[in-house]
Amino acid sequence: MEILDNIGEGIELPKDDRIIRKLKTDAMDAQDDLRLGRIALLGLIIFTVLSIAFQLYNGFSLFEILLQNGILLLVFGWAFYYSEKNPRLAFLVAGIVYLLVVLLAAVVVPGSLFRGIIFKLIIVFFLVKGIISSSKFEEIRSQLKAYGEDLKIRGIMDKKY
C-alpha cells in the first residue's frame, strides 16, 4: 500500500493528487489479481501439454490427441496471450471452456468431477477473480483517464508498476 499524503511532513497533497494516488494503488491491487489469473492460465497450458505428452506415451492416435487437447491448448494459449489486451474476455472464454471440459468429463466419467477437485476449484477461483479484477481495473483506468493518466496491464513477470 502506498501512503496517500505526506501527513508526517505537514504537507498535504492537493485533492486531485490524492485521488490519483488512491486510484493507482487500487489499480496495483487489481493488477496483482490479474497476474494470478494469468498464472492460472499458464497452469492450464502446462497441464494440457502434460496431458498431450501422457497420451502420446500411451499410444493414442495423433488425431485423438489434437481433437481432445490440441483445441484446449489453442484456447488457453490464446487466452494467456490476449489477457494483456482484454483480460475480461480472455478469462471469461478460458473459464467457460474449462468449466465445459470439466462438466463434459463428469458426464462421461461421473467420478472425474471429484478427482482433483482442489485443483479445479483453485483454477476456477483465480479465473473468476481475474474477471472481477479486470472489470475493476477497467473502471479505475477510465477514472484515471479523466485526470489525464493512463494505465497499462503488466506482463506476468513484471512486478513494477
Percent strand equals: under 5%
The amount of helix comes to over 70%
- For this entry, what is the oligomeric state of its chains? single chain
Find the count of extended strands (DSSP E, 2+ residues): 0
Order of helices and strands: HHHH
| Count of individual helical segments | 4
Alpha-carbon distance between the termini? 12 Å
Largest sheet: none
Mean pLDDT comes to 83
Number of domains: 1
The best one-word shape is elongated
Structural class: mainly alpha
Unreliable stretches covering 5 or more consecutive residues: none
Rg, nearest Å: 20 Å
Task: Characterize the structure shown.
- With 161 residues, the chain is mostly helical.
- It has one domain (15-146).
- The protein contains four helices and no strands.
- The protein has helices at 15-57, 62-82, 87-108, 117-146.
Attribute tags:
mainly alpha; elongated; 161 residues
Write a concise synopsis of the structure shown:
The protein is built from 4 helices and no strands.
How would you summarize the topology of this molecule?
Elements: H1 15-57, H2 62-82, H3 87-108, H4 117-146
Helix pairs in contact: 1-2, 1-4, 2-3, 3-4
